[in-house]
Structure of TonB-dependent receptor:
Amino acid sequence: MRIFYCCFFILLSTISSFAQERDSLRTELLNQVNVTANRAQQKTLETAGSVSVISAGTLQTYQPRTTPEALMGSTGVFVQKTTHGAGSPFLRGLTGNQTLILIDGIRLNNSTFRYGPNQYLNTIDPFTIDKIEVLRGGGSVAYGSDALGGTLQLLTSNPAFSEKPAVRGKAVARYATGDMEKTLRAGVELSGSRVAFSGGVSIRNFGDLIGGDTTGKQSPSGYKDRAFDAKLLFGLSDSWTLTLAHQSVSQKHVPLYYRYKLENFALNEFNPQKRSLSYFKLNGPTSSKWASEISLTGSWQATNEGRLSRKNGSKSLRTETDKVQTSGLILNVQSDIAEFWNASSGIEIYNDLVESDKIDQVDGAGPVASRGLYPDDSKYLNYAVYSLHQLKLDDWQFSFGGRFNGFRIKVADEVLGNVSVKPTALVGNASISYLLNDHSNFYTSFHSGFRAPNIDDMGTLGIVDFRYELPAYDLKPETSYNFEVGYKFRSEGFAMSAALFQNNLRNLITRVQVAGQKIDGIDVYRKENVERAYIRGAELDVEYVFSEYWKVYGSGAYNFGKNVTKNEPVRRIPPLNGRFGLEYRRSQWFVRPEAWFAEEQTRLAAGDAGDNRIPKGGTPGWVVVILMAGFDTKHFAVNAVAQNLTNKDYRTHGSGINGVGRSLWLTLTGKF
């Protein structure tokens, strides 16, 4: 596979020499504008860092079942699926609470985000997304804690003003063979000269996932999903806008398939799995160069995670509930200090309130309540001030910035009593770019990052991932130092982006076994800042338009991670992976065959070797072929995605469920 992959890109590099001759054609790669890298609009070609942009058009082409699956195949992103109702993106070898997820600039990450793969990204309705931006290797200076591997931002659709009152609507129906999906989505948009509104409802029923070849139906893995969203825009003046938005997702009976299959559970599911977000955003320009644009965002977010479990043959049902309520306030100021100098500065405040409980119900007896996974009524205050600057001098561009972040964490632990800790972090970044003729960008960058200890790190008490964990309140922030060099090139017919990086990780928080202690026969662990590691790698993204209607494209990413403290690989490092494909697009229709691949991963940490989700000796490599086709008119659209044409049995490394087998996913869209 590696030889084929290399030959593919050698071919693309060869034909790139002809790209400058096709001035009438345009590539999508590097032709977008992103806001995530510097909290300000910037051409992706000119950004001194690795940024991928997944546009609304791309989402329409792929018709992803869930938001995590919208990232599958994206350059430098590897999606692990613990179960069908989950999906955790790896950015440069890190995932979970070591990557940062934003919705419209607001943190999805809260103080109970777990280390390792999780399900939180799946609580975002894919029908609400207008664009996804992935910043690999940075984000702590701009957005704060957790961006050790990078930052993923989901930007939702906005209604538009119109000179005359207008009404538009859309209805979507999707069906997958084997009853793997039955979805209905209805949305409406109302607009006027000063007021615009959009809203929608999604009803999605997912059946058990059917794998390839000999896997068959993986039961239980299906679940139900209900979502609602609304956004209201007011034009307060010709330039100032007030946005009011709300979104909510409720998922019920989301089974953890591998626990049924491998761990002797009669019942193990998330029920419910809920998230809601409401926010306002006030933004507009001023006449001052120091505040050319001001944005004020206030947000209220709530998550509710319930877990039900019962072992086979047991009469005891365990119900655990964790609720987090988060309020946030962001003030961001854009400054055009000089013709060659602009900046983005501001303050952020987030406050979490955590509620956690556990109830054991034995058949024929009353319920017994006890301490939940986290100390009940825990409080987590996160406050910061930041400033990012860009200077452009002729063909040179310089970027630099810094952030101070403080935390105030209060818990009332029934084991250790009242505890209050106040960790702080100071991080910075810098980059240099050489921009030549609006076609190329040679750059080098440095990003320092951090992840502050959260309630999950400090307050966990109970069984987690086959271990019994005790609270730990003397933890320090994890830190990262990411070095990157890269090259970007874009003409009308050819585009490419390549990067080499090394991320040095320090003070990593890990579970350390407490010698000689067992609870109910299970080894006891406590978290400590005792490890350091590094992850290095390479990424390549290429696109070539070779005729009026045809293009070929491909991407790949390689990560090598080493835990220096243990002298072993970093846990769950993805193998070499990527995609390549061909697209024919003409007028109202398109056809797009594509192949996704991953090499085998046999470099395993001790924790990987003991993980029942990873086959003995490592995860086999695979190639999966899909075919997408669509037809789009003014009033209706038809999209079809034929998955896994060879019916390959495969699993992304570390996942608890196999990928989908040969199947057809059909989407019908009506527009008025």
Remarks:
- Residues 7-25 have pLDDT under 50 and may be disordered.
- DSSP finds seven helices and 39 strands in the chain.
